[in-house]
Amino acid sequence: MADLQRTVDELAARLDRPLLLEDRVQRVVAYSEQNGAMDDIRRDSILRRHTTPEVRQWLRAAGIHRAAAPLRTPGAPHLGLLPRVCVPVRHADGLLGFLWFIDAEPAMSDAQVAEAEAAAPALALTLFHESLASGLASHRELEAVTGLLLGERDAARQLIEAGAFPQAQPVTVQVARPLAPEPDEALRLALEQGLLALRQRLSGHHPLHLVRYDHAVLLTAGAPVSPDELHAAMPVPVVVGVGRSRPELAAAAGSYQEARHAAEVTARVRGLGRSAEWARLGVYRMLTQLPDQPLHPGLEGLLGDAQYLPLLETLETYLDLAGSVVATSRVLRLHRTSLYYRLQRVEELARTDLKDGGERLALHLSLKLARLSGRYLPRDSHGSS
């Protein structure tokens, strides 16, 4: 409710006129300071938290339940009703409520109506979230999930006692990270919309969610949800990281940290696809935990010059395949003579010796670190001939 009230107050301040928000059966949900034109109907609605049957019937006849866009409703002097602007609040074609403005002293401009309409999706998401909260108020669920991901054990107890998550079920956390370069409010709303729609379909998994400024979090009970379902629900392109399951909700923070790291690696490393499980990240599990490390000095010059990309791809494939010339030739479809030539060129340019195990390890780790930092962008997951 705190999010709704804040949004209502901010919108009223921007438009410099009071407003009132009702749910779909016209019960008052929130309202701003009433410092403008006021009629008896507005006053009674605030005091009683709902409108009278006569007024609801009048407004229904004006078409508010069918409206897909803002609608100006006429006044009704016999009911004590001034003209109004009604902005329907909808989510996925479902009516969730109405945003009301008294359209008098002065009337609303078209620009003001358009701004009110633009605010409706955010209100719809909050109302929809509250309808999914399973006995736990939306803002309390948000606080509890936030605390849970920070490792607060009492947060798990709150969610379980409220019936939002089963006590004896394991939990898995997935993180969806958008590919957009800069997060903004429109992106946050898109992530929220996708997760709310997914929660409705996944009710059997007792889903919970949280949207942060640059990523979205989904928690589910029992077997993890397929990352493909998460991709399909998102209205914007994302990569998905999957943490390992934990035996109880109180341990969800560990799965969350793994999912965040997996999503970060997936966003940075080409060849991993659109999703990755923490348990299958291999060496990247370790590298994401390390502070910035210097690379092998012989690779510095090669990484900065595009002409050396085929050599680096060949070297990485060779090291990935444990130094097997036969396997590397087959994967790269490269004649062994050409492969030996490329590896010799790497040794000359990088001033290294590929027969030295320590050098091979340093080169291999440096290439993986360069992938994570974006300095090395191979053309596919195995290199290219």
Can you give me a brief rundown of this structure?
Helix 1 (2-15) runs antiparallel to helix 4 (110-131) and helix 5 (138-149) packs antiparallel against helix 6. The chain is built from 15 helices and ten strands.
Measured by DSSP, the beta-strand proportion falls in 5-15%
On the 0-100 scale, what is the average pLDDT?
Answer: 87
Instruction: From the 3D structure, determine the CATH topology of the largest domain.
Output: Alpha-Beta Plaits
> What shape does the CA trace take?
elongated
Helix content: 40-55%
Structural class: alpha+beta
Q: State the oligomer.
A: single chain
Q: What CATH architecture of the largest domain do you see?
A: 2-Layer Sandwich
Number of domains: 3
- Main sheet strand line-up: 2-1-5-4-3
Number of strands: 10
Number of helices: 15
Major sheet characteristics: 5 strands, antiparallel
Question: For the terminal residues, how far apart are their CA atoms?
Answer: 59 Å
Order of helices and strands: HEEHHEEEHHHEHEEHEHEHHHHHH
Radius of gyration, Cα only, in angstroms?
28 Å
CATH class wording of the largest domain: Alpha Beta
Low-confidence residue ranges: 381-385
Protein name: Helix-turn-helix domain-containing protein
Domain CdaR GGDEF-like: 155-265
Family: Belongs to the CdaR family.
InterPro entries: CdaR-like_regulators, CdaR_GGDEF, PucR_C-HTH_dom, PucR_C-HTH_sf
Fold topology:
Elements: H1 2-15, E1 20-23, E2 28-31, H2 40-48, H3 53-61, E3 71-73, E4 84-91, E5 94-102, H4 110-131, H5 138-149, H6 153-161, E6 171-178, H7 185-201, E7 208-211, E8 216-221, H8 227-233, E9 238-242, H9 252-268, E10 275-277, H10 284-287, H11 297-303, H12 309-320, H13 325-332, H14 336-350, H15 357-373
Parallel strand pairs: 9-10
Antiparallel strand pairs: 1-2, 1-5, 3-4, 4-5, 6-8, 6-9, 7-8
Helix pairs in contact: 1-4, 4-7, 5-6, 12-14, 12-15
